[in-house]
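Repro:
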Amino acid sequence: MERLIVTACACGLLASCASHQRIRLEPSKAALPTARATITVVDLRGKEEREFQFAGRPHCLRSYGDDFIAPSKTTYLKQVLQTRSPPDAAQIQLTISRFETVEYCDGSVARTRPLGLAAVTAGVTHGQVALPFDAPKEVKGDTFVLHLAGTINGRPFDVSEQFDYEDIKFVNFPEENPDYRKRIEQAINMAVDQLLKTDARGAAAR
């Protein structure tokens, strides 16, 4: 996926395109290891990559910054890594070169267009617009993509997870629906499991 550096949002495309959402997630406590690894995170991303970026044309997209997940994306990632690491893991050094959480929202835009002036007003005033929930079958583009790259204990990784959310009902932001938050949790869990497999393969090869 190409790096996203976008700075303008076309007015009136979507109420949520005028701002952005924040969600609160907590790692599952169901399978905490008996011994937690000591985790050190080094973030190599630039300032621009840590901030919210958005665009309306030619496609609607929202690239969420570090405040997307409370208290922060990197803090949550560290918590998930800690809870999913094997019980015998002593220390994990994680270097992050990319941590992208991006929504492609063309489907939402298409559902908004018939609302005309109401959508434009909401985009300017941050007001609420009731969107029709059922997208036309030919509309595609409501997709969330997670892209994470860097090193774990010196071993490089580059993983991506994604899911569609066209079936999720919401008014302003998909985070209003708990199914959306669950899918983000699952995407991050799967990405972390890939990191841990990378580390395990490297350790076995030594």
